[in-house]
Amino acid sequence: MKTYIVGNFKLNFTVGEASIYLHKLLKAVPNYRDIEVVVAPSTVALQPLSLQIDRHKMKLAAQNGFYRDFGAYTGETSFSQLRGLVDYVIIGHSERRHIFGEDDKFIQKKVAGAVRNKLTPILCIGETESERAFGETADVIRDQVLGGLADVSAEDLDKVILAYEPVWAISSTKAAKEATPGEIAEVVKLIREILKDTYGVKVAEKVPILFGGSVKKTNAGAYLMVPGVNGLLVGGASLILSEFIDIIEIAKRVSA
Ligand code: 13P
Predict the structure, then answer these.
(1) Which residues, given as ranges, of the chain have pLDDT below 50?
(2) For the whole prediction, is pTM greater than 0.70?
(3) What is the pLDDT, as a whole number, of residue 175?
(4) Is 231 near ligand 1, meaning CB less than 6 Å away?
């Protein structure tokens, strides 16, 4: 399986800044066949960057999208509009869940809508600090995985990527803590078991599971060596071009 290194810019960079960043990133990173480099800029940057990107080298992701193809949905961007511009779409990010109130039912429709439009959803799941403190991590993860994937058939499961992002480890969270490789390993194992029990061993092994939360060049290697982790979803550190390039190089070394 490939190693995925995904940079989520969140609400940062103007279109011009994102374009300069991409230009430099394309120059700095060779064409690694076993590393899938993906950047997720703001929606407004997707169209110009889709013309600029070399898709043999790296791919674009949207940070969000809507499952209706068209209609009276002010402010939304449909997966059918994103199709052609991006290959991936981040769905159910904790900021969408907690700031914008997206629930598993809504996220489930988005995941299915993305798959229907031939985009690969990167479904984010993860418990909050208090859910972990109350021993609810396993239940939250189970609900989010099965809820998010509820409208995806077993045949389509290999078109989905999961990203485990514990909310307490995201750098913008108050008093964010870095997750330990052991903590990540435990939840990734659980996710794999949920997939096996629901969809069967063969399919479950094909689903890439990424980790996200305060990933930096100093912990990227250790996180990529956690059994069952197939890549990283990088927020803050992806905004610093040299740091993101370093993380890609680390992924290359670890996967070699
Ligand atoms: P940070 O890497 O800034 O913690 O963000 C993680 C994240 O939310 C990526 O989607």
Answers:
(1) none
(2) yes
(3) 83
(4) no
Residue ranges per domain, the chain? 3-255
The verdict on domain 3-255 having CATH code 1.10.10.1320 is no
Distance 72 CA to ligand 1 centre (A): 32
Does residue 93 carry a catalytic annotation? yes
Burial 16-54 (b: 16+ CB within 10 A, else e): eebbebbeebeeebeebeebbbbbbbbbebbebbbeebe
- pLDDT score, position 256: 82
Choice from 5, 6, 10 to test ligand 1 binding pocket (greatest atom count within 8 A of CB): 10
Q: Tell me which of 36, 93, 102, 243 is the catalytic residue.
A: 93
Determine the residue of 234, 243, 244 to mutate for testing ligand 1's pocket, defined as the one with the most ligand atoms within 8 A of the Cβ atom: 234
